[in-house]
Amino acid sequence: MQNIVIFGKGGIGKSTIAASLSTVYALQKKKVLHVGCDPKHDSTVGLVDGKLIETFLEKHARVFGVRDHGELKAEDLLVKGRLGIDCAEAGGPEPGVGCAGRGISLMLEAFQDLGVLKSGGYDVAVFDVLGDVVCGGFAAPLRKGLAEKIVIVVSEELMALYAANNIAKSVRTYASNGVYLAGLVANLKDGKVDRKKLQRFAKLIGTRILEYLPRDPAVREAEFARNRTVVERSPKSAFAKSIRSLAAKILAVRKEDCPVPTPMDDRRFYGAW
Ligand SMILES: Nc1ncnc2c1ncn2[C@@H]1O[C@H](COP(=O)(O)OP(=O)(O)OP(=O)(O)O)[C@@H](O)[C@H]1O
Ligand SMILES: [Mg+2]
Asked: Can you give the pLDDT at residue 200?
């Protein structure tokens, strides 16, 4: 089984890419678990016919209050989505109240207690994790040994690289848990941008760029339609083609080819350009 964790700055394209990858793997007849680790709980929308599923925290409040934790089964935490994809969303507190990372930590603890990853017979698990927050909750998949392959989504913008550098620090911190940085995905805002800075950044932090994804209106159209990911809705689009290529590359990356990343301290990061 492969555990793939998609990290990246807010709004960079994590959920679009993560849900598209899950779709590609499911279309290849792989058994897929897709986990949204973001209070916005929108990662699985395109995988469950446009519905916002009940989040783990909502379920926690509804079920855990009346039932003994031990009576819960792994299936209770999952919703069956399109193409047989098992879906979960951590959810989070109302904005401004409480800690968003806590929902993620709680959900992953329940996953471990109930053996969700082991009992599901999954070929691939895709985690979509909010990544520009330094809060430990967002590193929960790394800390709890659930994560394996980390993929960081970046764009050509400096702040996207700043977030990626921070995420690489978390990967370095938890490398002893078996976590490794498989590479970066460049979700470009401007397809014509000079790619040298991105390549330089990848080299500086000791990783590679797995794929360049094009800006594609098909992504927006699928997002408004909500009921399917762009890969299912527009399989011939440039974005879907690049995602299929990315999906194969992620599976092919081997741990031994991924050295512990070498992120920069903030001064070096800002001085690097
Ligand atoms: N390659 C692309 N082409 C066109 N639109 C894109 C592309 N990638 C992402 N988008 C659009 O950018 C917006 C942000 O994408 P998405 O929600 O996937 O980002 P995210 O990283 O998950 O954000 P958040 O951190 O808020 O969860 C969406 O409206 C999405 O449709
Ligand atoms: Mg998202």
From this structure: 97
- Residue span of the structural domain in which 248 resides: 2-271
If you measure from the C-alpha of residue 187 to the centroid of ligand 1, how many angstroms do you get, rounded to a whole number?
A: 9
Q: Examine the pLDDT at 258 and tell me if it is beyond 80.
A: yes
Residue 142, CA distances (Å) to 8, 28, 91, 147 in order: 14, 27, 18, 5
Residues 6+ apart with CB under 8 A from 174: 139, 142, 143, 147
Give the CATH number for residue 152.
3.40.50.300
Q: Which atom from ligand 1 is nearest to the alpha carbon of 215?
A: 3
**In the structure encoding, which two tokens stand for residue 255, read together?**
């741990």
Domain count, the chain: 1
> Beta partners for 80?
86
Residue nearest (by alpha carbon) to ligand 1 atom 25: 10
Instruction: Choose the weakest-confidence range: 99-103, 201-205, 266-270.
Output: 99-103
Cα 239 from chain centroid?
17
Burial 105-129 (b: 16+ CB within 10 A, else e): bbbbebbeebebbeebebbbbbbbb
